Amino acid sequence: MYQPDGLINKTMSGLGLGSLTHPWLADQDTALYAVIVPALWRQIGYVMVLYLAGLKGIDPMLYEAAKVDGAGRWQQLRHITLPQLRPVNAVVLSVIIIDSLRSFDVVWALTRGGPYHSSELLSTYMYSTAFQSLRLGYGSALAVVIFLLAFGVIASYLVRAFKEAD
Question: Please, are residues 37 and 24 in contact by the beta-carbon 8 Å criterion?
């Protein structure tokens, strides 16, 4: 897909946009964005299911009361839908952050953190430091940092969830 003769460049050439063809993974300006697309593709379905569940959990009587009060669609979105989705937003944010910490496989398969470390993540840096440079102590310290970041996200979410439950 991202190869110089891949799907994206062939499609652009076929549409007469041959001047926009690009070595997507080989350019340090576009490599990170090219890695983000499959990572988002992997997550988007789960996030959509979470939001759909959140939308189904909103009481329809709130919208009926808002219509009776004369609220338009924008006001219903702003004053009913978005506040009711606040807990779902917290879950989605936590899931996205934790998934970004575990997105080693996509980056390593596509770019191995290159070119010139432009798409390198903390996890790929930890792997290359520990197992390619054989600096096992430093790699272990980076693994602890990754764990603490994930734990901090989860702990902050749980604290917020317990405060809202009380």
Answer: no
The model's pTM is 0.72
Question: What is 7-165's CATH topology?
Answer: MetI-like fold (1.10.3720)
- How far is residue 125's CA from residue 28's CA, in Å, rounded to a whole number? 16
Q: Where are the domains of the chain?
A: 7-165
pLDDT tens for 154-165 read 888 788 777 876
3-state secondary structure 49-80: HHHHHHHHCCCHHHHHHHHHCCCCHHHHHHHH
In angstroms, the Cα distances linking 74 to 16, 25, 118 are 40, 41, 40
Instruction: Compute CA distances 97 → 60, 72, 119, 153, whole Å.
Output: 31, 34, 17, 8
Structure tokens at 36: 């983000």
pLDDT, tens only, 127-151:
999 999 999 999 999 999 988 988 8
Compute the distance between CA of residue 38 and CA of residue 6 in angstroms, rounded to an integer.
Answer: 15
